[in-house]
Input
Amino acid sequence: MEIVNIPLDSVDSTQSYAKQNVKTFAKDKITCVSAKEQTNGTGRFHRPWLSPKGNIYATFYFTLPKDSLHLTSLAQVMTLSLAEVLCQYKLSPKIKWPNDVLLNNRKCSGVLCEVTFNKEHVDVFLGIGIDVNMSEKECAQIDKPATSLRVETGKEWSTEELLKALQEQFAQDLVLFKENGFETFHSKFENLMAYVGEEITCFDGEKEYTGICHSLNSEGQLNLCIDGEMLTIFSGDIHNK
Output
């Protein structure tokens, strides 16, 4: 699938820019809006996202049929795409369900997915932030354990090269997703999932649940074992004890 790039120097957020300009985007291609820095980046649950220069901030826009399977798992597909790219660079990423990438148990990337339903199709805005060249000092400013590719490898990275590799991987993965939904990615995702077998707490936006991180179902939802009973979590934030 062809990718159209819209590179920006600075923007409030690539997600906001994409939503504001969606009418100008081709419906039969992937449009990737990227920026060298964001002045008002946000993550899941509208949390602020620290967005200095030297990292990757991008939103992938594309359309899917309204009857597509497992639309709520698209963020996880992007997360897995990045994890696979990092594996190609000889790194050892883990995925903190549903859509954070960890290196050495510290977050280096997060994904945000927003979907708008129209008469003929759905508009998908898939945003990703990757801490690429942040220093240890900058990572320490984040309110949760964070790292960057530079911190982990001791070298500067080319954001252009990394974004291109991610685009190519995700374009391939999107083709597979269109055919079979999340099921194609289930095993790969589960094999990279952090905290399996450990006690975790999950906040779904309203309530906290504590149990054993058990597994992932075929649609990308988390199976949490609480007092011997399985609870399926559709969306939320998790952390281990």
Summary: The CA atoms of residues 69 and 112 lie 18 Å apart.
